[in-house]
Design brief:
This protein is mainly α and 492 residues long. Helices cover 80% and strands 0% of the residues. Helix 3 runs parallel beside helix 8, helix 3 packs across helix 12 and helix 12 runs antiparallel to helix 13. The radius of gyration is 22 Å and the shape is globular. Its main location: membrane.
């Protein structure tokens, strides 16, 4: 993409594009956690165990993780407008399937269809925003993305808690469906084409290997709670997933046009930022999955009350994300991320002493502080990593970042749920609430350890001013153009 082309893109009217993408992404991510508070109701309605029901959340994140690597290819093959409309129409159809699902199998199928469309949304939105905004305004732009990424999962349990308290859980999908249709109609008229189409070849084997790899790992980790870690099903799933994923990674290095460009991980800052983002997203999604189960099944709270615990944190995160974006534009990511991860580690530890009598106020205050910390980490660390990449590599960087984050959240949530059920002192019919709460506390000990690892990694993020970052990025762009066909004028 030439310098003139980039400048033309950055001059277009950003407001309608930003509004359409933020709305679509908000609705897509909202569905990622909408099931959290409703899970106990669905468990009762369909006679499911915790480990089976949690697939409503983890299958959504897994399919996201499978779809996201493909988006780098899709972004370079189809126009922005066509890709967005296709993704949202797919998502709308999946939402309708979930709303009318007569059994758990159809409900899971609907979640898979939803996720297939939603998986395209985040990397597409991040790629578009990084192209239409100059580097000195990317922190603010990604702060708006952070508002969606953070606020949607946070508000989901609150909204679902209210709806399932007074209506059937199917109302969750009936509320979302018309909003998706409205966004599609508006996008049809206002969305413009932004991305540069290079028409890369798709590698079917890579798609197959990534699907088996990520799917096998998640199924193995999730099934451990039902069958035990020594189960043949669990061992074979983990083994098949690991082998497939290993072959997939080595294949990407050999392909001229890889489906997922692992070479972006050669950049040290990008790799550290991606790992920190993975751990932070595990902390966000896992707590929103575990807390409603603990509150409703072990502490005697209602679905509405478990949703209310999330609300103050949701408001704080929504308020803070644009602010942390502006702070990032002025001072960089290092101190924001260190402070945020310190808060996340402390609040994870504060959730390791829960009892059946823990107060609603304690749960709410700790969660609000936790979300304040996450808002200081999520998008600043993502933007810091992506700013290390050239314009050509941004689609691959966003695909890699989103893939790793979604898969980590899927596997991380499955592992923590497994730890919770396996560590419970008693899970039989005569189990006391205190017996089951012990498993919740152990799960949060694991979450605390993960947050501590991320905090240590945060100290390896470079101390670099925004001005130095912009200069380094422009130098990288200039060097790339010298070696590209764009520079010789062969390609527009």
């Amino acid at each position: 993409m030439t310098k003139d082309r980039i400048e033309d893109i950055q001059k277009i009217n950003k407001a309608p594009i930003v509004a359409v993408f933020l709305t679509g992404a908000f609705l897509a991510i909202l569905n990622q956690t909408l099931m959290a508070t409703a899970t106990p109701h669905i468990m009762e309605d369909m006679n499911l165990t915790e480990n089976t029901a949690q697939w409503l959340t983890t299958i959504f994140m897994l399919v996201n993780g499978i779809m996201i690597p493909v988006t780098a290819f899709l972004i370079e093959t189809y126009t922005t407008r066509r890709l967005f409309l296709t993704a949202m129409l797919t998502f709308a159809f999946g939402t309708l399937v979930c709303a009318v699902a007569p059994n758990f199998a159809i409900l899971i199928t609907g979640r898979v269809i939803q996720a297939a469309g939603a998986g395209i949304m985040m990397p597409l939105m991040m790629t578009i925003f990084l192209l239409i905004f100059p580097i000195e305004k990317r922190g603010t732009a990604m702060g708006m993305v952070g508002l969606v990424i953070s606020f949607a999962p946070a508000i989901g349990p609150t909204l679902s808690g209210f709806l399932v308290e007074y209506f059937h859980w199917r109302s969750l999908f009936y509320v979302v469906f018309p909003l998706v249709i409205i966004d599609i109609i508006i996008a049809y008229f206002v969305l413009k084409n932004v991305t540069n189409r290079t028409f890369p070849k798709v590698d079917i084997l890579s798609i197959f290997l990534s699907t088996i790899g990520f799917g096998g790992l998640l199924y193995g980790f999730s099934s451990a709670g039902n069958f035990g870690w020594s189960s043949t099903v669990v061992i074979l799933s983990l083994l098949l997933g690991s082998i497939s994923l290993t072959i997939f990674i080595f294949r990407q290095f050999k392909l001229k046009q890889p489906m997922l460009e692992f070479r972006v991980l050669k950049n040290r800052t990008f790799t550290i930022a991606t790992i920190i983002g993975m751990i932070t997203f595990i902390g966000l999604i896992a707590s929103e999955t575990i807390l409603p189960i603990y509150m409703q099944n072990m502490a005697g709270f209602s679905a509405y009350e478990s949703g209310l615990v999330i609300l103050p944190g949701a408001l704080i995160m929504g308020f803070m994300s644009p602010i942390t974006g502006r702070i990032f534009d002025r001072f960089g990511a290092r101190y924001l991320v260190i402070t945020g991860l310190t808060i996340l580690t402390i609040t994870s530890f504060l959730y390791t002493n829960l009892t059946p009598d823990t107060s609603l106020e304690y749960l709410t205050i700790v969660f609000a502080i936790r979300m304040f910390g996450i808002s200081m980490v999520m998008m600043p660390v993502t933007t810091a990593g992506l700013n290390q990449l050239s314009t050509k590599l941004i689609p691959h960087g966003t695909a890699m970042n989103n893939t790793m984050r979604q898969v980590a959240a899927s596997i991380g949530t499955a592992v923590l749920i497994t730890v919770m059920t396996a560590s419970a002192l008693n899970t039989g019919e005569d189990a006391m609430p205190s017996d089951m709460v012990h498993g919740v506390n152990v799960a949060f000990y694991v979450a605390t350890g993960l947050s501590l690892v991320a905090l240590v990694l945060a100290f390896y993020i470079k101390r670099i001013t925004p001005a130095e970052e912009r200069a380094a990025w422009r130098a990288q762009e200039a060097e790339e153009k010298l070696n590209s066909r764009d520079y010789r004028g062969d390609v527009d």
